[in-house]
Amino acid sequence: LPPVFAQWIQNTHALAPGTTAPGATTSTSLTWGGGGLVAVGGKVALLPIPLGTADFLVHHIHAFTIHVTVLILLKGVLFARSSRLIPDKANLGFRFPCDGPGRGGTCQVSAWDHVFLGLFWMYNAISVVIFHFSWKMQSDVWGSLSEQGVLTHITGGNFAQSSITINGWLRDFLWAQASQVIQSYGSSLSAYGLFFLGAHFVWAFSLMFLFSGRGYWQELIESIVWAHNKLKVAPATQPRALSIVQGRAVGVTH
């Protein structure tokens, strides 16, 4: 199942200079095709990017995440003041409590909830883009060029075969490349490895705020307060968790 539409776009850009700019000798980028590779110091800098079934699948994932993000934001605008479920949204304001039907409110219906959900799906969309770019480039573009002219890609061109399954992404991309980070701790690249690990922690930590469930933080803090009460070291001022609205504000800030 080749990505026919994506290949058509590639071919159109590769042939465009011949019709729109006859004086141009090449297309705007070698990635469109129709040219050779560019190597600097034995390392591949640019190369026409081949597209196949794996790209066809990932392109549809990109389309899905982008459409869901846009639809959520559009729904938030169209139903910001009123909806069939809650006709008096205009009286409740931009944001109102989201504690579930059992505690007096229905979740994910305020305009603020739609902003939050849109941001969450934006995270999902960006994650897939980063994963796709990283693995695709290492598999089919970046690599080394020997003196004999033999091209060896970083991951040996395994994207086309492995990325068509979830297990392939976990095994041949995430887990296979995690070893490089682990091994970097004992080398001169340890600082970069720690930066890499820290960046992932910040990313995961911010995501934690965005999809933390209803009442999660309140239950967590209440369990800590219970332990302090059992030990008779509870302070006079009882700590309370952030509200859902406040927690999402913290998550968006992160």
TrEMBL record:
Ranges that cross the membrane: 56-74, 115-135, 189-211
Reactions the enzyme catalyzes: reduced [plastocyanin] + hnu + oxidized [2Fe-2S]-[ferredoxin] = oxidized [plastocyanin] + reduced [2Fe-2S]-[ferredoxin]
Main localization category: membrane
Membrane topology of the entry: Multi-pass membrane protein
Biological processes, Gene Ontology terms: photosynthesis
Any Pfam family hit: PsaA_PsaB
Keywords: 4Fe-4S, Chlorophyll, Chloroplast, Chromophore, Electron transport, Iron, Iron-sulfur, Magnesium, Membrane, Metal-binding, Oxidoreductase, Photosynthesis, Photosystem I, Plastid, Transmembrane, Transmembrane helix, Transport
Keyword Transmembrane: yes
EC number(s) stated in the UniProt entry for this protein: 1.97.1.12
Class of this enzyme: oxidoreductase
Compartments reported by the entry: Membrane
One annotated Gene Ontology cellular component of this protein: photosystem I
A single GO molecular function term of this UniProt record: oxidoreductase activity
Domain of life according to the entry: Eukaryota
Subunit structure: The PsaA/B heterodimer binds the P700 chlorophyll special pair and subsequent electron acceptors. PSI consists of a core antenna complex that captures photons, and an electron transfer chain that converts photonic excitation into a charge separation. The eukaryotic PSI reaction center is composed of at least 11 subunits.
Record's function text: PsaA and PsaB bind P700, the primary electron donor of photosystem I (PSI), as well as the electron acceptors A0, A1 and FX. PSI is a plastocyanin-ferredoxin oxidoreductase, converting photonic excitation into a charge separation, which transfers an electron from the donor P700 chlorophyll pair to the spectroscopically characterized acceptors A0, A1, FX, FA and FB in turn. Oxidized P700 is reduced on the lumenal side of the thylakoid membrane by plastocyanin.
Recorded family membership: Belongs to the PsaA/PsaB family.
Name assigned to this protein: photosystem I
